[in-house]
Amino acid sequence: MALEKLFDWLFQPFLIWGPGWGVIIISLLLTIMINIFYKLFTDQELMKNLKKELKDLQKEMKTLKDNPEKFMSKQKEAMTKNLEYMKHSMKPTLITFVPLILIFGWLKTSFADAGDIVSWGFSIPLFGEGLGWLGTYFFSAIIFSIIIRKVLKIS
């Protein structure tokens, strides 16, 4: 497959440090890419304003628990704002979805035999004795995403 050879070529330099670091570095690179696309394809000022409005509406709703009619009105307004926020955030998601699915297919074939990349030496219910490539990717992507969003000032 041509894409497999392309991904081998792109990511091979990061695999020399072993599967653990390879997955973590690839996670970092993909997270940077996703967040840059998000920042480029969303109106950050609008997103910031919508987030603030949603937060203000939530505060108002807490004070209106005794008044169901006003509470429902504010809740409807909050739902409308939330839908608008989601609509604006979907564009970068759709742009990055297909490349990520293709890369995840490559990651699966490349790291399926690696076993537990992160091992904690004892068994945790539902998690076992460690994390495979997928768990390592997601946990590192969450951490990287938090940091990158703060650095890039993404709402």
Low-confidence parts, pLDDT < 50 over ≥5 residues? none
Percentage of β-strand residues: 5-15%
Counting helices, strands and paired strands, the structural category is: mainly alpha
Quaternary form: single chain
The SSE string, one letter per element, is HHHHEEH
What would you call the shape? elongated
User: What is the terminal-to-terminal distance?
Assistant: 38 Å
What is the number of domains?
1
The overall average pLDDT, rounded, is 89
Query: What is the count of DSSP helices, taking H or I runs of 4+ residues?
Result: 5
Sheet of most strands: 2 strands, antiparallel
Give helix % range. over 70%
Radius of gyration: 20 Å
Strand arrangement in the largest pleated sheet: 1-2
Q: How many β-strand stretches?
A: 2
Provide an overview of this structure.
This protein is mainly alpha-helical. It has one domain (18-152). Helix content is 77%, strand content 7%. It has helices spanning 2-15, 19-40, 44-63, 68-111, 133-152, and strands at 118-124, 128-131. It has a two-stranded antiparallel sheet. The longest helix has 44 residues, at 68-111. The protein is elongated. The protein starts with a helix and ends with a helix.
